[in-house]
Write a structure and sequence with these properties.
Number of strands: 11
Helix content: 25-40%
Strand content: 25-35%
Largest sheet: 8 strands, antiparallel
Order of helices and strands: EHEEEEHEEEHHEEEHH
Structural class: alpha+beta
Shape: globular
């Protein structure tokens, strides 16, 4: 099996539309000519320059269903990107950024662990791209900048291990891990997001009600 590394951005649920609008600015110019219409929870409609399951048919997420997009994203060229692009042809923009795809985006509008914070997970299409996600400072910068631009609270790199690498947290670029000295588990990370402690308490109560007390 190949590698499926991903960047995960956590945003307040009401800011998913804002995140998608910011993401459209990272699409190569040629891709913006054939938009896909997405109906968001609440009924608002957005046009995005990507496909969903490789079609441009309108997608209705008004019921809060997952949104899946096939994206191509512009990245600045650093040594890791240059090495990845060797002997390949890629779309570029006027600033010299390179359009890399496919990067598969899955949007969960209300994940169970923190239903008030939506998750946008960007997954590499190949093992080579997965290694690029891990090695490239330029790729990391694009996802942390996107997190900042859309008001996200956290960005994580998932390398399919027991450890998540924290790239952005509450308005600052960071280099940390979960589990790690500061965050023993994921719930501890959620607790430091704005209103995250309340979110963790609500989730714990839901789990307790579902499981029931240990003893009568």
């Amino acid at each position: 099996m190949g590698l499926d590394y991903s960047y995960r951005i956590l945003v307040p649920a009401h800011d998913v539309g804002r995140a998608l609008i910011e993401l459209t600015e990272l699409a190569p110019p040629a891709r913006r000519e054939t938009p896909l219409t997405v109906t968001m929870p609440g009924g608002a409609r957005l046009d995005v320059p990507f496909t969903s399951n490789f079609t441009s048919e309108p997608v209705d997420c008004s019921a809060g269903d997952k949104l899946e997009l096939d994206t191509c994203i512009l990245f600045g060229v650093d040594d890791a990107v240059r090495e990845y692009c060797a002997d390949r042809e890629y779309e570029t923009d006027a600033s010299g950024r390179v359009g890399l795809g496919y990067v598969y985006l899955t949007v969960e509008f209300a994940p169970v662990p923190h239903p008030r914070f939506a998750s946008l997970e960007f997954t590499a299409a190949t093992s080579g791209m997965s290694r690029l996600f891990e090695r490239s400072a330029s790729v990391r910068a694009v996802f942390t900048s996107l997190t900042a631009a859309c008001g996200g609270v956290c960005a994580l790199l998932d390398t399919e291990s027991d450890t998540f690498h924290i790239c952005w947290l509450n308005g600052e670029s960071v280099h940390d891990t979960v589990p790690g000295p500061r965050f023993a588990e994921y719930a501890d990370l959620v607790a430091v997001w704005p209103d995250g402690a309340a979110e963790r308490t609500r989730s714990a109560r839901k789990l307790w009600r579902h499981a029931g007390p240990a003893h009568p």
